[in-house]
Amino acid sequence: MAATMCLRGIPALSNKAVPIMPSPGSAGSTRRLVVLCQVNHNGSGPFGGLKEAVDKVSKRPITEEDILRNQQENQSEKQSVFGAIPSSGSFFPRPEIERRPETGSRSFGSVFAFDGAAPETINGRLAMLGFVWALCAEKLTGLTVMEQIVRPGTSGLVFFVAAVQLISYASMVPIMNGESTDARSFGPFNARAERWNGRLAMIGFAALIIDEMIRQGPLIH
Questions:
Q1: What is the pLDDT of residues 149-164, one digit of tens each?
Q2: Could you give the angle at the alpha carbon of 107 between the alpha carbons of 101 and 111, nearest 5°?
Q3: Is 130 a residue whose pLDDT tops 90?
Q4: In 63-155, where do the E strands start and end?
Q5: Cα atoms found within 13 Å of the Cα of residue 217, Cβ hemisphere only
Q6: Which of 13, 68, 103, 181 has CB 3.0 to 4.6 Å from 191, enough for a Cys bridge?
Q7: Residue 18 and residue 33 in contact, taking contact as beta carbons nearer than 8 Å
Q8: What burial class does residue 131 get, using C-beta atoms within 10 Å of its C-beta: 0-12 exposed, 13-18 middle, 19+ buried?
Q9: Taking the CB of residue 181, how many other CB atoms lie within 10 A of it?
Q10: What is the pLDDT of residues 2-44, one digit of tens each?
Q11: Cβ neighbours of residue 185 closer than 8 Å, sequence gap 6 or more
């Protein structure tokens, strides 16, 4: 005869009865357990609270009041490094409240403007990945950065295109949702550290290519 039991404490099963059905065959055959799983759609599944947990640890919402206060107190927001004063509606520089994805326009032209949220974020992340990747590949293959990309038979160009698309898409998702890199931090991992590391990586990657063009060989043999 069939029996039923209810598994409690497992969010994905939503307290459904689980029948224990006899397997086909003789009456004395071994019974088998048939589990009826139903994933909840109210965020209480196995990974339902993952996003909330990550947000609680790493996210600090940036409000319009925070941005306006920073514009008043931060000297770099009153005047650009070139001496220009930010003005509303200009291509560069713009006031912080206009260029941030939290309060400004999220159009393609605004996000990818010279002072937009996307260019430095994407370029810095690609440079950090590319610099480490290039040095590791040089050690393994003995090829320069340009040879890794353009030499027939190598897959460097394929990986380069894939990395550009993946990093660009992953970086654009939070920006288009109205979240800048400054809204996230976890211990030493914060937007300021990422910007400086990205800038150094961009300089280092460019210097690596120039050095290899002059020396006509890889930096690491």
A1: 888 888 888 988 999 9
A2: 50
A3: yes
A4: none
A5: 3
A6: 181
A7: yes
A8: buried
A9: 21
A10: 444 444 444 444 444 444 444 444 444 445 444 444 444 455 5
A11: 58, 60, 191
